[in-house]
Amino acid sequence: MIPTLEVVLGSSRYYACEVCGMIYADSDTARSCESWCSAHGSCNMEITKRAIGKIRRAGLRLKRS
Known about the structure:
The protein is α+β, with helices and mostly antiparallel strands.
């Protein structure tokens, strides 16, 4: 299972693809995006149309606590 980057804004929790920076409401979609981006070096429009935002500095690897 691919770990996802959690993004917490107030009381809401979102999940981001660590490759392209797209943010999703659920971790399964973020994992699908990260798998696709890693394998193909591009984004999949069918996945990214479910994105709710984007992290400004995509590709930034953060240390997990």
